[in-house]
Specification:
The complex is a heterodimer of chains A (114) and B (111). With 114 residues, chain A is an all-beta fold. Chain A is 0% helix and 50% strand. Chain A contains no helices and 11 strands. In chain A, strands 2, 4, 5, 6, 9, 10 and 11 form a 7-stranded mixed sheet that branches. A 4-stranded antiparallel sheet of chain A has the order 1-3-8-7, with no helix packed on it. Chain A is globular and about 40 Å long. Chain B is globular and about 40 Å long. In chain B, the strands form 2 sheets. Chain B has a 5-stranded mixed sheet, with no helix packed on it. A 4-stranded antiparallel sheet of chain B has the order 2-7-6-5, with no helix packed on it. Chain B is an all-beta fold and 111 residues long. Classes of the chains: A mainly beta (114), B mainly beta (111). At the A-B interface, β4, β5, β9 and β10 of A face β4 of B.
Chain lengths: 114, 111
Protein backbone atom coordinates (compact mmCIF):
# COMPACT_ATOMS: atom_id res chain seq x y z
CA UNK A 1 0.00 0.00 0.00
CA UNK A 2 1.63 3.21 -1.16
CA UNK A 3 1.68 6.03 1.30
CA UNK A 4 1.32 9.69 0.44
CA UNK A 5 3.26 10.57 -2.69
CA UNK A 6 4.30 14.00 -3.92
CA UNK A 7 5.80 15.30 -7.12
CA UNK A 8 8.16 16.68 -8.07
CA UNK A 9 10.78 16.04 -5.39
CA UNK A 10 12.69 19.23 -6.08
CA UNK A 11 11.87 22.32 -8.11
CA UNK A 12 13.67 25.54 -8.93
CA UNK A 13 11.68 28.55 -10.09
CA UNK A 14 12.35 32.20 -10.74
CA UNK A 15 10.72 35.01 -8.82
CA UNK A 16 7.37 35.98 -10.40
CA UNK A 17 6.74 32.57 -11.93
CA UNK A 18 3.95 30.17 -11.08
CA UNK A 19 4.31 26.62 -9.74
CA UNK A 20 2.08 23.57 -9.34
CA UNK A 21 2.82 20.82 -6.84
CA UNK A 22 1.00 17.49 -6.79
CA UNK A 23 -0.06 15.06 -4.11
CA UNK A 24 -1.63 11.62 -4.11
CA UNK A 25 -3.14 10.63 -0.76
CA UNK A 26 -2.76 7.33 0.99
CA UNK A 27 -5.22 4.69 -0.21
CA UNK A 28 -8.56 5.09 1.55
CA UNK A 29 -7.93 8.71 2.53
CA UNK A 30 -10.20 11.47 1.22
CA UNK A 31 -8.90 14.58 3.00
CA UNK A 32 -5.74 16.35 1.89
CA UNK A 33 -3.90 19.11 3.75
CA UNK A 34 -0.97 21.20 2.58
CA UNK A 35 1.79 22.64 4.76
CA UNK A 36 4.74 24.93 4.15
CA UNK A 37 7.95 24.35 6.09
CA UNK A 38 10.64 27.00 5.96
CA UNK A 39 14.17 25.98 6.85
CA UNK A 40 14.57 25.42 10.58
CA UNK A 41 10.89 25.90 11.38
CA UNK A 42 7.90 23.66 11.94
CA UNK A 43 5.34 23.10 9.18
CA UNK A 44 2.70 25.80 8.76
CA UNK A 45 -0.82 24.88 7.66
CA UNK A 46 -1.83 26.30 4.26
CA UNK A 47 -5.23 24.71 3.59
CA UNK A 48 -7.24 21.51 3.61
CA UNK A 49 -9.43 19.93 0.93
CA UNK A 50 -12.32 17.54 1.27
CA UNK A 51 -14.92 16.61 -1.33
CA UNK A 52 -13.09 18.81 -3.84
CA UNK A 53 -13.62 21.93 -1.74
CA UNK A 54 -11.37 23.98 0.50
CA UNK A 55 -12.58 23.38 4.04
CA UNK A 56 -10.01 25.28 6.09
CA UNK A 57 -7.34 27.82 5.32
CA UNK A 58 -4.35 29.05 7.23
CA UNK A 59 -2.83 32.52 7.14
CA UNK A 60 -1.59 32.45 3.56
CA UNK A 61 -2.29 34.94 0.77
CA UNK A 62 -4.54 34.27 -2.20
CA UNK A 63 -1.45 33.56 -4.29
CA UNK A 64 -1.70 30.11 -2.76
CA UNK A 65 -4.55 28.11 -4.21
CA UNK A 66 -5.42 24.47 -4.51
CA UNK A 67 -7.59 21.88 -6.08
CA UNK A 68 -8.78 18.40 -5.23
CA UNK A 69 -9.79 15.92 -7.90
CA UNK A 70 -12.50 13.22 -7.79
CA UNK A 71 -9.82 10.60 -7.09
CA UNK A 72 -8.84 12.65 -3.97
CA UNK A 73 -5.47 13.71 -5.36
CA UNK A 74 -4.64 17.36 -4.96
CA UNK A 75 -2.62 20.22 -6.40
CA UNK A 76 -1.10 23.26 -4.74
CA UNK A 77 -0.61 26.30 -6.96
CA UNK A 78 1.48 29.32 -6.06
CA UNK A 79 1.39 32.40 -8.28
CA UNK A 80 3.79 35.32 -8.48
CA UNK A 81 6.51 33.48 -6.59
CA UNK A 82 8.53 35.39 -4.01
CA UNK A 83 11.94 34.50 -2.65
CA UNK A 84 10.21 33.85 0.69
CA UNK A 85 8.17 31.05 -0.87
CA UNK A 86 11.28 28.89 -0.89
CA UNK A 87 10.43 26.02 1.43
CA UNK A 88 9.54 22.36 1.77
CA UNK A 89 5.89 21.84 0.83
CA UNK A 90 4.29 18.92 2.59
CA UNK A 91 1.07 17.14 1.76
CA UNK A 92 -0.79 15.14 4.39
CA UNK A 93 -3.81 12.89 4.00
CA UNK A 94 -6.32 11.52 6.45
CA UNK A 95 -9.56 9.57 6.32
CA UNK A 96 -12.54 11.73 7.22
CA UNK A 97 -14.07 8.86 9.14
CA UNK A 98 -11.05 8.48 11.40
CA UNK A 99 -11.84 9.36 14.97
CA UNK A 100 -8.22 10.17 15.66
CA UNK A 101 -7.73 12.45 12.67
CA UNK A 102 -4.21 11.11 12.35
CA UNK A 103 -2.50 12.61 9.34
CA UNK A 104 -0.01 10.84 7.11
CA UNK A 105 2.61 13.04 5.51
CA UNK A 106 4.38 12.69 2.20
CA UNK A 107 8.12 13.31 1.74
CA UNK A 108 7.54 16.84 0.50
CA UNK A 109 8.54 18.96 -2.49
CA UNK A 110 11.54 21.22 -2.02
CA UNK A 111 10.84 24.51 -3.83
CA UNK A 112 13.66 26.98 -4.40
CA UNK A 113 12.82 30.43 -5.74
CA UNK A 114 15.73 32.39 -7.21
CA UNK B 1 -6.11 27.41 19.90
CA UNK B 2 -3.92 26.18 22.70
CA UNK B 3 -0.19 26.43 22.14
CA UNK B 4 2.66 24.26 23.35
CA UNK B 5 6.11 24.89 24.78
CA UNK B 6 8.97 22.44 24.29
CA UNK B 7 12.70 22.58 25.02
CA UNK B 8 14.62 23.34 21.81
CA UNK B 9 16.96 20.39 22.11
CA UNK B 10 17.98 17.40 24.17
CA UNK B 11 20.46 14.56 23.98
CA UNK B 12 19.88 10.94 24.86
CA UNK B 13 22.20 7.94 25.07
CA UNK B 14 21.37 4.99 22.87
CA UNK B 15 19.45 2.31 24.78
CA UNK B 16 18.27 4.70 27.46
CA UNK B 17 14.79 6.12 27.83
CA UNK B 18 14.17 9.55 26.33
CA UNK B 19 11.65 11.72 28.18
CA UNK B 20 10.40 14.66 26.12
CA UNK B 21 8.40 17.28 28.04
CA UNK B 22 5.68 19.51 26.65
CA UNK B 23 3.75 22.32 28.31
CA UNK B 24 0.22 23.10 27.12
CA UNK B 25 -1.20 25.09 29.99
CA UNK B 26 -4.05 26.63 27.98
CA UNK B 27 -5.41 23.39 26.58
CA UNK B 28 -9.19 23.11 26.37
CA UNK B 29 -11.14 20.19 27.74
CA UNK B 30 -11.89 18.65 24.36
CA UNK B 31 -8.44 19.09 22.82
CA UNK B 32 -6.13 16.15 22.32
CA UNK B 33 -2.35 16.10 22.67
CA UNK B 34 -0.58 14.74 19.61
CA UNK B 35 3.06 13.89 19.07
CA UNK B 36 4.74 13.78 15.68
CA UNK B 37 8.39 13.48 14.75
CA UNK B 38 10.31 14.51 11.69
CA UNK B 39 13.47 12.76 10.69
CA UNK B 40 15.78 14.88 8.57
CA UNK B 41 14.54 15.37 5.00
CA UNK B 42 11.35 13.41 5.59
CA UNK B 43 7.73 14.34 6.27
CA UNK B 44 6.44 14.31 9.84
CA UNK B 45 5.42 10.94 11.26
CA UNK B 46 2.58 10.39 13.71
CA UNK B 47 3.70 8.86 17.01
CA UNK B 48 0.86 8.88 19.51
CA UNK B 49 -2.01 10.96 20.86
CA UNK B 50 -4.15 11.17 23.99
CA UNK B 51 -6.89 13.12 25.73
CA UNK B 52 -6.44 12.58 29.46
CA UNK B 53 -5.35 9.00 30.05
CA UNK B 54 -1.86 7.68 29.57
CA UNK B 55 -1.36 5.96 26.25
CA UNK B 56 1.16 3.43 24.94
CA UNK B 57 1.82 1.99 21.52
CA UNK B 58 4.68 0.21 19.81
CA UNK B 59 6.62 3.43 19.37
CA UNK B 60 6.21 5.35 22.62
CA UNK B 61 4.26 6.14 25.76
CA UNK B 62 2.41 9.37 26.48
CA UNK B 63 1.95 10.56 30.04
CA UNK B 64 -0.53 13.42 30.53
CA UNK B 65 -0.75 15.15 33.90
CA UNK B 66 -4.04 15.10 35.74
CA UNK B 67 -4.64 18.81 35.13
CA UNK B 68 -3.71 18.24 31.44
CA UNK B 69 -1.40 21.24 31.45
CA UNK B 70 1.64 19.22 30.49
CA UNK B 71 2.66 15.88 29.05
CA UNK B 72 5.72 13.73 28.52
CA UNK B 73 6.54 11.54 25.54
CA UNK B 74 8.65 8.56 26.50
CA UNK B 75 10.79 6.63 24.03
CA UNK B 76 11.60 3.58 26.17
CA UNK B 77 14.82 2.44 24.48
CA UNK B 78 16.16 5.15 22.22
CA UNK B 79 18.03 4.11 19.08
CA UNK B 80 20.09 6.17 16.66
CA UNK B 81 17.10 6.10 14.28
CA UNK B 82 15.10 8.07 16.85
CA UNK B 83 17.21 11.15 16.16
CA UNK B 84 14.63 13.65 14.90
CA UNK B 85 12.66 16.79 15.69
CA UNK B 86 9.73 15.94 17.95
CA UNK B 87 6.61 18.06 17.85
CA UNK B 88 4.00 18.28 20.57
CA UNK B 89 0.72 19.55 19.11
CA UNK B 90 -2.64 20.34 20.59
CA UNK B 91 -5.30 19.64 18.03
CA UNK B 92 -7.65 22.49 17.23
CA UNK B 93 -11.22 22.31 18.35
CA UNK B 94 -12.29 22.22 14.73
CA UNK B 95 -13.12 18.60 14.08
CA UNK B 96 -11.12 18.56 10.86
CA UNK B 97 -7.94 18.67 12.89
CA UNK B 98 -5.65 21.26 11.36
CA UNK B 99 -2.24 20.71 12.97
CA UNK B 100 -0.35 23.68 14.40
CA UNK B 101 3.33 22.85 14.64
CA UNK B 102 5.73 24.76 16.85
CA UNK B 103 9.50 24.62 16.67
CA UNK B 104 9.66 21.21 18.36
CA UNK B 105 12.52 19.54 20.25
CA UNK B 106 15.59 18.38 18.37
CA UNK B 107 16.51 15.02 19.91
CA UNK B 108 19.94 13.61 19.22
CA UNK B 109 20.57 10.01 20.24
CA UNK B 110 24.26 9.29 20.70
CA UNK B 111 26.06 5.92 20.76
Amino acid sequence: DAGVTQSPTHLIKTRGQQVTLRCSPKSGHDTVSWYQQALGQGPQFIFQYYEEEERQRGNFPDRFSGHQFPNYSSELNVNALLLGDSALYLCASSPVTSGSYEQYFGPGTRLTVT
Amino acid sequence: DAKTTQPPSMDCAEGRAANLPCNHSTISGNEYVYWYRQIHSQGPQYIIHGLKNNETNEMASLIITEDRKSSTLILPHATLRDTAVYYCIVRTTDSWGKLQFGAGTQVVVTP
